[in-house]
UniProtKB/TrEMBL annotation:
The RuvA-RuvB-RuvC complex processes Holliday junction (HJ) DNA during genetic recombination and DNA repair, while the RuvA-RuvB complex plays an important role in the rescue of blocked DNA replication forks via replication fork reversal (RFR). RuvA specifically binds to HJ cruciform DNA, conferring on it an open structure. The RuvB hexamer acts as an ATP-dependent pump, pulling dsDNA into and through the RuvAB complex. HJ branch migration allows RuvC to scan DNA until it finds its consensus sequence, where it cleaves and resolves the cruciform DNA. This is Holliday junction branch migration complex subunit RuvA. GO terms for biological process: DNA recombination; DNA repair. InterPro entries: DNA_helicase_Holl-junc_RuvA_I, Hlx-hairpin-Hlx_DNA-bd_motif, NA-bd_OB-fold, RuvA, RuvA_2-like, RuvA_C, RuvA_C_sf. It comes from Nocardioides dokdonensis FR1436. Residues 148-203 are annotated as: Domain III.
Length: 203
C-alpha cells in the first residue's frame, strides 16, 4: 500500500495531479480543494506531499490524493457504507470538508448530504445510519496539511484554483478579496476556496 507520495508537482489537471517520484510520474485523483493547493506551473520544482489511498480493481490501480490525513481517513471510512464507492466518496469530500461531513452525519442532516451529486434521500439516510458513530465529532481529526506547508501564499493558491475551474482572473481576484477576512492567522486553503466558489455562484 502507498501511504503518501512526495515529489515535484509535474502537472495539474481539473481532476488530478501528477507528482514525479524517482523519475516516474504518478497521477493522483484529487478534489478541487486539494488541487487548489498545488501550483500547475511545470518546472518550478514545487515539492508536495499528499497522503494517498490506493483502490485496486481487476482492471486498474487508482491512486487518490488528499489535502491531509484527515481527508484520507474520511475517504476510506465513507467507503465502508453500503453503496459508497471511491468516486462517490471523493465527490462527497469535494462538496463537504471533513468537519462539515461530520456535522452533517452527526446531526442527521439529510438535506446537506443530498447536495452531493449521486446521493438521494435514502442514500443519505443509509450513510447517516452506518457512519454516525464512526466518523467522530467535528474537529476531531483535523491535522496540519502536509501539502499546504510547501506551497505559495493562500491568495495565489485560491486564485489559481478558481482560474483552473474556469473563472476569469478578474473574478478570481475579486473573490479572493471577498474571502480574505476569513483567512485569519492560519488560513485553510480548501475552506477559503469553497467560500470563494459560493460567493461566485451567487453573482
Amino acid at each position: 500500500m502507498i501511504a503518501y507520495v512526495r515529489g515535484p508537482v509535474a502537472a495539474v489537471t481539473p481532476t488530478s495531479a501528477v507528482l514525479e517520484v524517482g523519475g516516474i510520474g504518478l497521477e493522483l485523483l484529487c478534489t478541487p480543494g486539494t488541487l487548489a493547493t498545488l501550483s500547475p506551473k511545470v518546472g518550478t520544482g514545487q515539492q508536495a506531499t499528499l497522503p494517498t489511498s490506493m483502490v485496486v480493481r481487476e482492471e486498474s490501480l487508482t491512486l487518490f490524493g488528499f489535502l491531509d490525513e484527515d481527508e484520507k481517513v474520511c475517504f476510506e471510512l465513507l467507503q465502508t457504507a453500503s453503496g459508497v464507492g471511491p468516486k462517490l466518496a471523493q465527490a462527497m469530500l469535494a462538496v463537504l470538508a471533513p468537519d462539515d461531513l461530520r456535522r452533517a452525519v452527526g446531526g442527521e442532516d439529510v438535506k446537506t448530504l443530498t447536495r452531493v451529486p449521486g446521493i438521494g434521500q435514502k442514500g443519505a439516510q443509509r450513510i447517516i445510519l452506518e457512519l454516525k458513530d464512526r466518523l467522530g465529532a467535528a474537529g476531531a481529526g483535523r491535522s496540519a496539511s502536509p501539502a499546504s506547508s510547501t506551497v505559495a501564499p493562500w491568495r495565489d493558491q485560491v486564485q489559481q484554483g478558481l482560474v483552473g475551474l474556469g473563472w476569469t482572473v478578474k473574478d478570481a481576484e475579486q473573490a479572493v478579496d471577498e474571502v480574505a477576512p476569513e483567512a485569519g492567522e492560519d488560513p485553510d486553503v480548501a475552506t477559503l476556496l469553497r467560500s470563494a466558489l459560493r460567493m461566485l455562484s451567487r453573482v
